[in-house]
Write a structure and sequence with these properties.
Blueprint (H helix, E strand, L loop, with lengths): L1 E3 L2 E3 L17 H4 L3 E6 L5 H14 L3 E7 L3 H6 L5 E7 L6 E2 L5 E4 L3 H13 L6 E5 L2 H4 L5 H14 L5 E8 L5 H8 L4 E5 L7 E6 L2
Length: about 210
């Protein structure tokens, strides 16, 4: 990567597939997938997400993380170059964009999330996009899991274009079993990240 004035140039000859190779695939195979990534509390999911974004950046994709201000992933990725961060917070009442491009939104406002997804897509029609959705219950209002499920289903439909690759993160230890089972029915690609040694990330279901 080289800098030319205020323009950052990505050397595509250096492109690699650090995320895809974790599951013995390549980027073209993964591109366009909507992935449910289940993880356990002790698993290093932050590193996996970093690799996902590194792969998107290396392939000249627009990258965005939807998360909450209280998330471990937010703290891990805050300030990462070429990744737009949308962070939900209970401390803001209207959307606000900081000088570094981070967007803060009120928590549990699905309408704002879908609006930003649409904006990112419409403003980047000529390139592929990579999104990660973390802290789902902080992004979608719901007294019952069925309401959150409905919101996720709406997001998946919005992300249907083949140029959009998306990961939805879910902690298997803090998610109700019925909710997790319903979520699995929404995703044709499912991966699981354990806290074991060796190759902790594995594909549980794949319909590419």
């Amino acid at each position: 990567m080289q800098k030319n004035g205020d323009v950052e140039l990505v050397n595509l000859s250096e492109a690699s597939d650090p995320f895809s190779t974790l599951v013995n695939l390549d980027h073209p195979k993964i591109e366009g997938s909507k992935i449910l990534l289940e993880y356990s509390s002790n698993a290093n999911f932050e590193d996996v997400v970093k690799k996902f974004f590194d792969e998107g950046i290396a392939n000249a994709e627009m990258c965005a993380l939807f998360t909450s201000k209280s998330s471990k992933l937010y703290r891990s990725l805050k300030g990462k170059r070429m990744v737009r961060i949308v962070a939900a917070s209970s401390l803001v009442s209207v959307p606000d964009e900081s000088l570094d491009g981070e967007i803060q939104i009120p928590d549990r406002e699905l309408g704002l999330v879908t609006s930003l997804v649409t904006d990112f897509f419409e403003n980047n029609m000529s390139i592929a996009l990579s999104f990660v959705f973390d802290s789902i219950t902080e992004l979608i209002r719901g007294e019952r899991w069925e309401q959150v499920y409905s919101g996720i289903k709406q997001l998946i439909e919005l992300l249907s274009p083949s140029t959009v690759t998306a990961i939805f993160l879910v902690n298997t230890e803090t998610t109700e079993a019925r909710f997790l089972g319903a979520l699995r029915g929404l995703f044709s690609v499912q991966m699981r990240l354990d806290d074991t040694q060796g190759q902790p990330l594995r594909v549980a279901k794949a319909e590419f």
